[in-house]
Amino acid sequence: MSDEIISQYDYLDIQKMDEGQLVKLADEIRKKILVAVSSNGGHLSSNLGVIELTIALLKSFDLESDDLLFDVGHQTYAFKLLTKRNLALLRKKDGISGFQDIDESHFDKMMGGHSSTSLSLGMGMAAAKKLEGDTSCTVCIIGDASLASGIPFEALNSFKKEKYSKLIVIINDNGMSISNTSDAIKGMLNRIRNSIFYQSRAGKFKKAFDRKGLRPIYTGAIALKRKLKKVLLPTNYFDFFDFAYLGPIDGNNIHKTVKFIERSKQIDGPVILHLITKKGKGYKYSEEDKIGVYHGVGPFNLEEGYTDKKDENSGTYCASKAIYELLKKDPKAVLICPAMVYNSILSTCFETFSDRCFDPGISEEHVFDFATGLALKGAHPIVSIYSTFMQRSYDEIYNDASRMKADVLTVIERSGLVGEDGSSHQGINDLALLETIPNVSVYQPLEANLIDEIIINHDFSSMHPSFVRIEKGNYISDKEYSLLPYIFKKGMKDDVAFIGVGSEFLKCLALLEKGDMFFLTKLIPLDCGLLERLLNYKTLVIYDPTSIKEGLSSNIAMNLIKRNYRGRIIIEALDKAYYLGMKKEESLKQVKLDADSILNKYLDR
To answer: Locate the Transketolase-like pyrimidine-binding domain: which residues (predicted)?
Structure first.
């Protein structure tokens, strides 16, 4: 497969190609992306939609001097192919990243993974270039959903063009984000998008009259149009900022896109170029997808399409069922899920309880203040959010939800190592962050029935935010354990104790040969009775393969030291580091935190 999905071209070849050759190249790249993603999994629809745009960018810019920043970065597969990277290694151990990665190629000018950062990064680069007299272009390719996040608003609001070198912002507008959204920015873009009819007519008018002998008619008509526009038409959203605006343009038409990129380069000052692209272009199933099935996929058969089989033993599935039951049981319950409704298996909740479900898009900071406001007025807010995205909400949780004693129930999806998406998506920091916040509770269920008990039976009168960490992967469901702060199992020796969390620790029951075992379910605050019991052991092994050492492990150790513990403490947890993309099992094995490694180490195998 390897040779099949390395492009035989690179961006220097594109500079020499004519329009027909470029269209043929787009078809070739589309086929290679389909082969790679169907084999390895990955982000499909977004990459199929930007192939022509990517080719146009490489036709118009010099990658050695100009900077191309793809927001989020999950639409860079064509870019990677055309800069000689092998998509056969996508999302593989020691392979290539699914996002832009400055450690992978000098053509990647940023680390991608989280949305809405390209504009601020690009402005920083353009400001530095201005100070150095560098006249190269900085190009930010940002999607409409990313544009609706708070960070680009802050960037645009601070922009003063005299302080920056040439900056071009390309809005890749596909009418969707991850799934079909209904936010205000989308409505605004829809209104602008509808003017593409006008753009096509304007182009024909220019072609007819903008020539020798007829140019005065054209220039006079343009001047009159501008005056009438100011008087009669409402202000374009982008007119508020210090940018020239071009568009909307058909971004899947290479000829037009190149033409308008070149026009953008000639305009003195910053430019916003608005392009309309078709998400999932060229593959029937992804073109018809309206709910985000083909945004991110696992391996699948190209002929049959992607079959997203939800594993009923997965933590995500169990959590989604529990949330549904809580919404059904409690008429005051309100669900908030930012941009990940489909992936968190919450579509049924949104369909059944539509008046009490909100998808505010990529707006994590807003989510927790919104939830806090709901709680302050007596509603019972439930937030479902990925661990890696919740990091962006630290201040709102600390200063607002916790300080105002708002009972917000947060289901933290993808806690722990999550696999192929790599360093930007690992959910290993949430516990360490929450450790620093007063007035919170954090739970980590051991098995499926405990997920139900914690979520469905949540008491919304506790006067503090509560968090439930859900690991990626399957949970056992034999209903052996009850909902206690910790579960104790008596071992064969009474001077050693193993304290741990999560599904991997359940695989380590053979450790009972060497000592007692404590399975933790409530991680914050730690149970005082547990801490008092642990003082009786000569050796404590704290095992947490789901968090960095600064999380649960250091909290247990610190609390024991405060109680004058004199024994030995061994910590088996993740180092504070960036963990690359590979299967979750491979990551745990690599850092020797999988169950087999722990058993081998402590059972003297």
So the answer is: 313-477
- Sign of the Cα torsion 530, 535, 540, 546 reads positive
pLDDT tens digits, one per residue of 422-453: 899 999 999 999 999 999 999 999 999 999 99
Number of Cβ within a 10 Å radius of residue 236: 16
Q: ∠ CA 9-13-19 to the nearest 5 degrees?
A: 105
Residue 297 has φ and ψ, to the nearest 5°, of -130, 160
Phi, psi of 124 (to 5 degrees): -60, -45
pLDDT at res. 588: 96
Dihedral angle sign, alpha carbons of residues 292, 296, 302, 308: negative
Angle between helices 448-456 and 315-329 (to 10 degrees): 30
Element (H, E) at 267: none
CB 574, CB 502: distance < 8 Å:
no
List, by residue number, the catalytic residues: 279, 364, 392
* Nearest in space to 89 (alpha carbons), one of 305, 68, 58, 81: 81
pLDDT of 81 reads 93
Q: How far apart are CA 570 and CA 541, in angstroms?
A: 5
| pLDDT on residue 271 | 95
| Spatial distance between the Cα atoms of 342 and 33, rounded to a whole number of angstroms | 23
Which residues of the chain fall below pLDDT 50?
1-2, 193-194, 196-198, 231-233
Residue found under tokens 């990677």: 80
Paired tokens of 545? 């393969």
With beta carbons less than 8 A apart as the criterion, state whether 486 and 530 touch.
yes
Nearest to 82 by CA among 104, 109, 60, 54: 54
